[in-house]
Every structure is written in C-alpha cells, then in structure tokens.
Amino acid sequence: MLFSPAAIAFIAVAIVVLPVIQRPVVAAEILVLGIAAVAMNLLIGYTGMLSFGQAMFFGISAYITGILVTKAGVSAFVAIPVAVVATGVVAALVGAFCVRRSGLYFICITFAFNQMFYFIAYSWTSVTGGEDGLPGIARPAIIADPISFYVFTAAVFVAALAVLKKIVDSPTGRILQAIRDNPNRAAATGHDVGRYKLVAFVVAGAMGGLAGALLVNHTEFVTPEFMHWTRSGEIMFMVILGGMGTLVGPVLGAAMALGTVFALVVLFFRTGVIGVVEAGYERFRRQREKPANP
C-alpha cells in the first residue's frame, strides 16, 4: 500500500480542514508551496544536495504556462503539463553541469544558473514582459472560483505527494539516501552517483515546475520575482522548518510560513501563546498545591 490508512486519514482531514481555518485562496497557496517544498526536500532531505536553483524551475514553468495561456490561447489544463515537461528538460540540461560538483561548488553553480535565467526573464521584455511581467493569465472557467481551484490544487498535491512517496520508497530512493549519508561508500558499492543525483535533480526540477505552473494560475500573473534566488531561500526555509527528510514536514513548513499556525492560535487559543502557557502553569501549580489524600 502506498500510504498507510492513518496517513490517508491525516491527509484527507488536513485537506478538508485547511480551507476552513484559512481562506481558500491562502489554502491553495499553501498546497502549491507545499509541492515546491517537497520537491526541494527530495534534493536536500533525501539526496543531500543544497540547491539555490529551485526558483529557476519554479519561474521557468510559470513563464511557460503564462506565455502559452496569454499569447497562444492554450488552456491551462494543457499548458501546465507542457510546462512541467519543458522544465524537466531544462533541469536535465542544467543538472548535467551542476551534479558534477558538490558542496559549496554545487551551491554556487545552481545559484549562477538561477540568476542567469532571472536576468533573461527581466530583460527579454518582448516575451516575458520584463519587470512588469505577464498579467491576465486567466484560469479555465471550471476552476475560476477559489473553492474549485483549491479542489483542483488539492488533487494535484495528492498526486505529487504519491509520486514522491513512490520514489522515496523505491530502490532508487534508498540509493539516493545512501548517497546523502556517504557518497563515497555509495560509489564504492557500484552505484553511479552522478546519474542518481541527476535523476533527483530532474525530478525535483519538474516537480518545482509543477508548483510554479499552479502558482501562476493562482495569482493570474507572473513576474521575474517568481525565479529570484530568494524564492529558493523561502522554499528551503519551509523544508527546514517542517523537517528535512520527511514526507509531510515541508508541507507543514509551508503552512507555518504562510500563517496557518497563527490562524489556529486565534481560533483555539484566544489568549495567545503566553496565555496558554500561563494557564498551563496555573493548572500545574494548583495540582501541586492540592493536599495529598490521607
């Protein structure tokens, strides 16, 4: 079984509850950034590759989707998969250079590629709109309202999570984790470390592209800021905040980064965090002061 019954129940409840404690617009953004976070987690948490280039794939896919919708008149349902495949191809080409290096060199190369594509988007005004970006990226009528788009995003999110789960639990996933723990030992046992790193890089790039294609449909515009290196830092923060090397941790990190925790505090802890701590201390003190039974 891909997911245990408990995991299925948790995911289902979370998807149902999320638009209740948050506006559907924010809830959809949490799931979109959750996809971006689990994609980066495949690199950081499962393969040990710290990349500052994920925003590059996020933005490339967003621009491809936006251009297809606004300039070619293509439906988003066609534009999204086309953008994901195209982003995967770009990830393969970029990854062929990047995965040959590790550590600080890998970080610097991914950062350099990221900023190169950022400046292309910023300066190629006839195609990308330059600093102003591409506005007017309308969603299909069937997912035009916030609730419908949330349901669509939730379905894509579950599919992306299932794909990642399948990869992590596969022999390839176990080899990726072996590379993370000790790449020299993995190479000594006969595994082509470079090839497996490239696979992880391409999958993470394509999945990051999926998140970008969804976000541009969510915001209905795209600017060069979609692929600025700070976007990679934000997604990395979500992964670290939620827990590296875990399946749903990065999604929780995205929820925390977008304020869902604060919404829960407002709903269930009206006196705030300090109020909860003080109330807990007061209950503890009263229990201590109760006379012992004779």
Overview of this protein structure:
It is a single chain. This protein is an all-alpha fold and 294 residues long. The protein has a single domain (15-258), classed as ABC transporter involved in vitamin B12 uptake, BtuC (Orthogonal Bundle). 77% of the residues lie in helices and 0% in strands. The protein is built from 14 helices and no strands. α2 (24-47) crosses α11 and α2 packs across α12. The longest helix has 27 residues, at 193-219. The model has no long low-confidence stretch (mean pLDDT 86).
Structure at a glance:
With 294 residues, the chain is mostly helical.
Name a few traits of the molecule:
294 residues; mainly alpha; ABC transporter involved in vitamin B12 uptake, BtuC; 14 helices; globular
Number of separate strands = 0
Query: At the third CATH level, what is the topology name?
Result: ABC transporter involved in vitamin B12 uptake, BtuC
Work out the helicity level.
over 70%
What's the N-to-C terminus distance?
A: 55 Å
In the CATH classification, which architecture applies? Orthogonal Bundle
**Percent in strands:** under 5%
Q: Into how many domains do the coordinates divide?
A: 1
Q: Which structural class fits the helix and strand makeup?
A: mainly alpha
State the CATH class. Answer: Mainly Alpha
Radius of gyration: 21 Å
The unreliable regions are: none
Main β-sheet description: none
Give the name of the CATH superfamily: ABC transporter involved in vitamin B12 uptake, BtuC
**Mean of residue pLDDT values:** 86
Anisotropy-based shape: globular
List the secondary-structure elements in sequence, H or E.
Answer: HHHHHHHHHHHHHH
User: How many helical elements?
Assistant: 14
